[in-house]
Amino acid sequence: MTTVEQTLRALLAAGAQDGTLGPGSQLPTERDLVERLAAPRSAVRRALAALERDGLVVRHVGRGTFVTEPPDRPGMAPADTSPAEIMQVRLLIEPQVASLAARVATQADLDRIAHCLARGGQSDDHEGFEAWDGALHRAIAQAAHNGLLLTMFDVMNDARALPVWGSLKSRTSTPERRRCYHAEHTAIVDALRDRDPDGARDRMREHLAGVSDNLLGRH
Prior knowledge:
Blueprint: H1 3-18, H2 30-37, H3 41-53, E1 57-60, E2 64-67, H4 83-104, H5 107-122, H6 126-142, H7 147-158, H8 163-172, H9 175-193, H10 197-216
Antiparallel strand pairs: 1-2
Helix pairs in contact: 1-3, 3-6, 4-6, 4-7, 4-9, 4-10, 5-6, 5-9, 6-7, 9-10
């Protein structure tokens, strides 16, 4: 987690405590944050993307960034969770989540998923792509409309914030690989739009199997 992101999280926490940044409140503009934090605009944008990925803020083009209700996350992944364990659980859970989402997602869900897909495709660096990758997968989990399943997903997804995962993803990330992942994400989203549960499940499984191979060297 970057210093800029930590500072913004602290700003949100303090604002929530004193009532100045409750749900629906607007954050300062990017320009104001750049000046206040003495940070590059690119760093501020990455930090805001991470907050949006975690559901703490929502950004509207032309309007600004607004505080949302923070997601309820009662559990945490064990600190010693390995990348292999993360991928094992992802392969068990996420294909079925995608299948369910294809059945019950609303148009608003599909629009949110499409937004995450587009932003990921526009990201030209590892950090930005990772933020929108996480947001896309969580948006699909939200679209399944099962609170217990989303809680389980969040515990699993929290493990992706562990240093060992971030270090491995960073070492294996290339522009070509990001383009490949984006194409795979697009195939998943297409299946969701087509209301194709089997296709969504299979495309998600194929995507995660490829991620596992790339990260862990399994063929």
